[in-house]
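Researcher: First entry.
Model:
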Amino acid sequence: MAFGTPGKPTRADTGTSAPAPGTRSTAVPLPPEQPPAAGTASTAKAPATPPAPEPAAAAGKAGALPAEQDEVVGPEGTRGMPVPPVPDQAPLKLLAELTNTPPPPQTLVRTILRRVKIWTPLVVLLALVFVIVQAVRPLPSVSLALTAAPSYTFAGTPLPDAMPWPTEGQSTAEVEGLGSLGVHGTQTPVPIASVTKVMTAYVVLQDHPISGKESGPKITVDAQAAQEAKSEDESHAPVKKGQQFTERQMLQLLLIPSGNNIARLLARWDAGTQDAFVAKMTAAAKRLGMTSTTYTGASGIEETTVSTAVDQLKLAQAVMKYDVFRSVVAQPNVDIPGVGRIFNNNNDLVNVGVVGIKTGSTTPAGGALMWAAHRTVAGKEQLILGVVLEQHAGTTVDDSLQAALQRSQRLIESVQGGLTSTTVVKKGEVIGHVSDGLGGSTPVVAAKDLTAIGWPGMKEQLSLTPAKDLPHSAKAGTQVGTLGFGSGSARTSVPVVLQSDLSEPGFGAKLTRLG
């Protein structure tokens, strides 16, 4: 056995050879011979250093290692495989090295193509989902819009400018549902006398409502009301202690002869005391927006009870909604068992169309009147309301009251004569359109002539009200709304119908909608 240089195996050989010229033998001598064991006849030969290869032969071999690099040889002449290098390159390059195929060079075109192959299926899937969602989404709500002129002005000289307004005090008038005819005079709080009883009746009807032919609960006349019935200083109703009258009869005794004793009796019956009732009157005035009004009693005899024409008109609007109140103030006289016939001191009730409401007269207040009248126009009855305060004439309180009545009557006649009707929209005229919410629209027309009620110079808004649950598709002539003019009892309206068929939006419109 022979050993080469440390760390490098060498070939074993049984022959002996001399070292090459100029080289040093590296053979390791065997240990000294040991005497053989008894009965053993074998002998050992000393190994010899293998001969060095011929220079010419070594150089002639293709791929031979240089002399200074000894070839690694394993047992029995096997060769050792070299260890591959540690992979430190990209997987694609490593694969190319292993397959001896170099990777294709990276170009912009190849990058774009690779990305197209990756993203195209995803984009197609998203597009398909988008189309399906757009097709099955609920349709937006159908809407109705006005395209005609939103308002109309009656021709002629404006009526409010031509009305005979009183030159003193303060006054105002309106047609219910159509609007104000104007306000004249400075609106500062002034005594209103027995016009106060309108609020007294309003509070009683709010706390104890009756309607139609109902009479309401019975109310007993107390000693105070009976004693006040003998007063010569104020208006009263001739009642006696212990008498019982229904609520309706008490309202008649309050408003027709203007009984102060009945006003205070109703206050005690409703709230326990007049002061507690006055608190209710004040609260009611606040709810109605009567910001310039102060109540200090139920009858109005106190000159500290003050208001304005504008505030009292707000009360007139509210109280005339009670049919019992309207029927009572429209009576020129009435027969009440136990009292007899009582007469209304509103002489204007003898005039055609006048229906009340309440007079008032004292020295501080002068003459005052809250009035109401009717006028039938185009088959519809219109309610006219007005208030006149602080009217003075002659030398007595009654003279001032008569002045208030006469001046109010002139206002009433001018309004009754000025109310008129005209055709605002003709049948078949396009006044708007139905929108499907996706860009499509279908015109709508008035099914009849729209006749409006008003006065010269009056400007009023048109209103288009859609029908409930507008359809997405319908035939021509289907009603889809109502066109109206005015409000309340003065309102006139006509149906609005489709001019042509209304169709549901197509697939293209559904696909391209964004909202």
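Researcher: Second entry.
Model:
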Amino acid sequence: MAEAKNSLTSTIDRHFLECAICHGPFNDPRALPCLHPFCCECLENWAKSCSNDNSIVSCPLCKKIYQIPEEEGIKGFPVHFLVTNLQDTVDKAKQNKSITNYCENHKGKEYEYFCENCGCAVCSDCCILDPIHRGHSFIQLKEASKRQSGFLENLTTRVTTVEGKYAAILQKIQLVKENLDQDTDAKIQAINEARNEFVQRVDNLIGAYKQDAYSKKEENVRAIEQIEEMLQVDLATLRNSSELTSDVIKSGSDSNIISLYPSLSSSLQQLAELQPTPVDSDLGEIKLEMPQLTSVDLPSLEQLLCDKLHITIDSSQQVLVNSQARRLLEKPAAANTISETAKHLTSSAASRQDNLGSIGRPEASEGPSLSLFSRFRSSTKPSNQSSIVKQWKECGKLKTTPQVKFPMGIVIHPNGDIVLTSISSPVTVLSRNGDLKYVIKDSPSKNNNIAITPSCNRYIIPGEQGKNEFHIYDSQGVLVCTTPTYDINNQPSSPRSVAVDSTGRIIVGLSFNSHKTVSLHQPNGTLISKYETISPPRKLNCTPDDKLIISFEDNTLQVMDQSGHNASIIQPPPGIQSWRPMYMCCSKQGELFVGNWGSPEAVYRYGYTGGEYKYLDCITTTKYHPYGIALSADEQELFVVDCRSNIIKIFQ
């Protein structure tokens, strides 16, 4: 029996545990998709000898070609657990020298029976004398061996059947990949043709718009210069009268003042009632007209692409594509926009028409094949989503109530209320529909910033200019306390901006009269610390991880910790004429919205990736300076204040 056992292990070693490349025992066996095992090192050398292309390897046995995993190389192929388990079993059998055909407990007695309770071979004495086996059921050893051999044969047959199913699925997958390659090449060629044709037509359209814009600019400049000349004359008259009156008061005698008073007072009263020549609100706004182009000159982007790709789109997709076309007219990077649109159309059409089904997708009734195909699909690398930018579209406008004129700062209460500061009135709370709910009585007017604490919904409001303090009101608008503010040298200083971090701590920017200080306070207003900044801070906000984003008077936008350290500059969007960041807000996901008071006046969006803020897109250009910017509690809506028009624009 020992000799038979040694012969069996030798046969297993020779036929199942030897690498077909080096003909030696397996070392770190790896399984190719065809399930043939090879040493990892042997397979690496084999791949190098087969081709200079390090991305593919052919099976030394069945000659099938497979893609080598990009990141890990040959080691990316799975370990062949059947081989490793078999190696362990054979090694144990070789080491176990005590296995013979004779009973260990009764020397000289040969194994004749099989104990069904214990699952082991026993001799006749074991059946009768050994108390361990008392009352157990025994059968002939040959019968037990025959029964277990039959069971193993059945399992082997089942495994072979499953192996065939896996092989069939792998063949289908190979067919899918080949068809995908061919279909992708055809689609890319069609997309490139559409791109070239569309870009040429869009260039013609943009050229016509530019010419119209320059013409409109010249008309506006002439009108503005006429108004400017009249205003300069009036201003010179006002200044001369003021200077003459001041000289009389300072240098004239009492009799001179008495004698000149009637004429001076009459003249000054007339000048005091002067009103500047009104400036038409349309001045400075370039109203472009659609150039007279034929339908051939002005193509439909979605129709052009669909004709090239031989696909159809439904109404919802047409809305998406039209929005992409509008982005194309707004941005110079036409080729990139077309590429993104084409990729969306191709992927959505392929999903909707189920093109894979026509080239051999496994049916759900095939059992294991469906799960294997699912794993194949999920194991592919996810596509790069960084180029897919969420589009914010204007969805409405909200006219402020008559009590609120020239709104400036804005913050959205967690319950959806809109809280506004303005030049003309105290802090006002409106409903989501724009109806007046209540006014925070005695709150400072003429301030342009406000914040709400996250836990108890208290209002943090800076004092009016020249008032060196900020105020804390409870959720009902009742004053809780007033905190004085001082710069780094303990000189009284007016706050220009306030913000609140996630813990409720209050951050105040002090920048009037050339002061340049940021102070940190407890939720109750108690001072924690303060530090001097390089330039006076204009506006500040907090990131989700409680860092500060500050816009400075030197027109830089910086992110830093609350102690003023580890500062880094957020770069302006590419291609703008002048950068003057002012109002801003930050989402819980780290997206940053910045209002530019430079040229063009617009709201820009930044994303936080790789440890820094990177420009994503322009949300909207504005007619006047974009004032307060705020996100709704669920961050699905963006509110932008238009101070001149008493309007709040809403984006989704």
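Model: Note on the second entry: The longest helix spans residues 141-251.
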